[in-house]
Predict the structure.
Amino acid sequence: ISLELTGGASPLTYKTNFGDRKAMAGTSAALKYHYNLDWNWSIGLGAEVKMYQSSVRFDTFADSYQTTANSLISGRADIMTFSYSYKNLEERQRALYINIPIYAQYRFDNGVYLRLGAKVGLPVKSKSEIYFEQLTTNGYFEYENITYNNLPQHGFGTYYDTEVDKEYDMNINASLCAELGWTWEWSEQYILYLGVHGEYGFCNLYKQKELTPQLQYEEGEFDYTPVWSANIKSNNERVPITGNRVGSFAIGLIVRYSFGF
């Protein structure tokens, strides 16, 4: 039986058409059981809790689109052009998984070990944390030929330092993993491992829904769309903010304490 901790980079990987994506650090904790075939070879399986996370940042972000909204004067439905712009918009994506690894390990006579395996990952909880320093909105009603930009109670104005959490569902993951490191055998029952590990996921972890604007106006209220399912106006057409595939990757250090009975 072994207890292990890892630390390093464990980002959610995706292509960005706008903004700057950044890989973020993550960690994991695991409980594993391995069976020694002989002094060199062993096989095992276990359970691991792992956090994957990334962020994307926009110094400026501006968009506009047409929608239907009730007129502030007549109360009847009217075509409105809703415009909004951000300063320092950032979205952090976090995904917590329970991974089930299986592996084979070879330990050399000098204490160096090599471990290869695969994992199946089950999503537990996923969310985006959306933060902005400043948001400015306005609405132009065609029939009235009026632009509203200073009615914050109706969703038109300037807003500061706001954070919003949006939860969503992720897909099952499958990945290959590898380790290389050293072992210190204190006795036949107690072994300390220190090494480097890497992991690469093969699955698309997020099913992209119908693309919508990042900020949706709903009768004075705002609904924020995570960038994975959002689009933006560019060259007179609406284009995705990111690519349609979200993957996983990890690399870092691992510490493991193994004990037997």
